[in-house]
Amino acid sequence: TASFFSADWVQRLAAIQPFGVVLDAMAALLPYLLIIAAFAFIYLFVPNTRVRPTAALVGALVAGVLWQSTGWLFASFVAGSTRYTAIYSAFAALVIFMIWLYLSWLILLMGASIAYYYQYPRQMLLHGEPAPLSPRLRERIALAIMARVATAFYARAPAPGAEALAEALRVPMHAVGEGLDALVSTGMLCPLEDPHGHTAYLPGTPPERTTLAEVLAAVRRHGERPGLDLHMLRIPAAAQRAAEAWDASLEDTLSGVTVRDLTREDMA
């Protein structure tokens, strides 16, 4: 930037108004634009995943402004840090370099986090931990996942991945992940990985033969292991009969409704 604005023809142009004002504004803005472009390139192409250009640009905008502004403040600090040089001698340059290196990486990672949360806004959870899902919500998410996957299958549309499902259902990724794990473990969904490492999902069983009762049973049984399942429970006989009656009523109500029926309204 300094070399460009110190060229003779630029100096002659700056003497002519209003080009002088424009060049002064460019001299102030160009370093920011160059740094923002560099950060956008890093956020767009370095991560081993698909990053949206808008997300990379938002993260680069924040990181670039912070980088350039922090660099200006840090340069002012270094210019006035003669007493540190007197105390630490030659080691002062190393200490100052380590401080700037730390700040630089902090700004880089901050911009990357902003780009990530801009692309996945539903990952911003309170306290930084995934919110637990209620059993009812798990069941609804599983039914919605099966309906979305089957609808895309019959429409011959691209198979949806976890990201597309989370965006369509307006739930966090971990909520979709729990439903996908339950359905994949029972074979109702089949994961398909493309050459770029992105996983999409296809029906693992014919949707017209897969009942909603089977889908709900897969979600309700997910996580049960030998030694930690219904067979180890010792519950009163009345409670056992009530639970069995509930299971039987659910099976009777939904046994005639298939996943294919969930897609008819979406495809109409």
Task: Characterize the structure shown.
The protein has 12 helices and 2 strands. The chain has 268 residues and is mainly alpha-helical. It folds into 2 domains: 2-119, no CATH class; 133-267, Arc Repressor Mutant, subunit A (Orthogonal Bundle). The protein has a two-stranded antiparallel sheet with strand order 1-2. Helix 7 (135-154) crosses helix 10 (212-221) and helix 8 crosses helix 9. It is elongated, with a radius of gyration of 29 Å. The termini are far apart.
What can be said about this structure in brief?
This protein is mainly alpha-helical and 268 residues long.
Q: Could you name the CATH topology of the largest domain? A: Arc Repressor Mutant, subunit A
Number of helices: 12
Question: Any low-confidence stretches, pLDDT <50, length ≥5?
Answer: none
Number of domains: 2
CATH superfamily of the largest domain: Winged helix-like DNA-binding domain superfamily/Winged helix DNA-binding domain
What is the molecular shape?
Answer: elongated
